[in-house]
Amino acid sequence: MPVEAAQETEQFAARHTSRLRRRLALQINRALQSCDAQAVHQIRIAIRRFTQAVAVWKPCFPAKDLRKTRRRLKKIMSAAGEVRNCDVAHKFLLRWRIAHRDRLQSKLEARRQDAVRDLIAQLKRWTNPNLAAQDCLPEVAQQALGRLSKDFLDRGNEASSPEGSAQAMHRFRMVAKKYRYTLELFEPSSPLVESIKRVSALLGDINDCVTAAQIVPALASRLKKRRRKKVEAFRQCWAAECAAPRKKPVAGAEHSRRRSAA
Fold first, then answer.
1. Residues of the chain with pLDDT under 50
2. At what angle do helices 139-160 and 253-261 cross, to 10 degrees?
3. CATH number reported for the structural domain that contains residue 203 in this entry
4. How many structural domains compose the chain?
5. pTM for the whole thing?
6. How much is the pLDDT for 135?
7. Among 137, 158, 173, residue at a domain's last position
8. Can you give the pLDDT at residue 16?
9. Residue 247 DSSP code
10. How far is CA 204 from CA 112, 183, 209, in A?
11. What span, in angstroms and rounded, lies between the C-alpha atoms of 112 and 127?
C-alpha cells in the first residue's frame, strides 16, 4: 500500500474527528450553562456523531485512549437520555388533558431535576480527548460502510415487516443513525441521507411513544394509538424510499483523497 494513501487517510480521519470533537465540547459547554431540552438533545447528537466517526476509524486510534473516551461518553449519554426521556413525556403531557395532570407534571419536573443534576456531574468530569490517528488503511471506511449498508437493509426489512417487534424497531433505529452519520462523513449530499432522516424521524416518534408511556402510564392508551399510526407511516416510508436495493455509496482511499484535496 502506498505510504501517501495511508497518510492522506490519517489526515482525513484526524480532521473530521477533530471537528466533531470540537463540536461536542461546544455542546457540553452550552449544556453546563443551561440544560434545556434543546441543549440536551444537541449533546446526544454530538456524542453519536463523534463516537460513530471514531468507530469507523477504530483501527486508527490507540485502543486504550479510545476505550477510556467511549466509557466517559457512555455515562454522559445515559444521563442525558434520562433528561431527554423526561422532556419527551412532558411534551405529551402538555398535549392532552388527563386526570391529575398538574400532579403528574410536578412529579415529572422533580424527576427531571434529579436527572439534570446527574448529567451536570457527568459533564463536569469530561475532559476533551486528544485522539491521534495513526496507521490508517484507506480500506477501513469502505469496509465500515459495506457492513453498515447490509445491516441497514437487513434490520430495516426486519423492523418494517408485519411481525416487526418494538425491539426490532429500536435496534434498527440505532443502526440507521450509525449508517446516516457514517454516510455524512463521505457522501453528505447523497439522496440516501435524506431518506434515512425521514425514516429515523418516524422511528424516533415511535420510540418517544414507548418512552413516554413508561414514564407516565396515564398516557398509555393515547400513545398506543399514536404509535400505531407512526408504525404504519414508517412501513410505508421504508417501502417507498429504502427497501429496494441501492448502489453502495462511494468511499475509500480515492474518495478520501478527493475530500482531503478539496
1. 1-3, 5-6, 246-262
2. 110
3. 1.20.120
4. 2
5. 0.82
6. 56
7. 137
8. 78
9. P
10. 20, 19, 9
11. 25
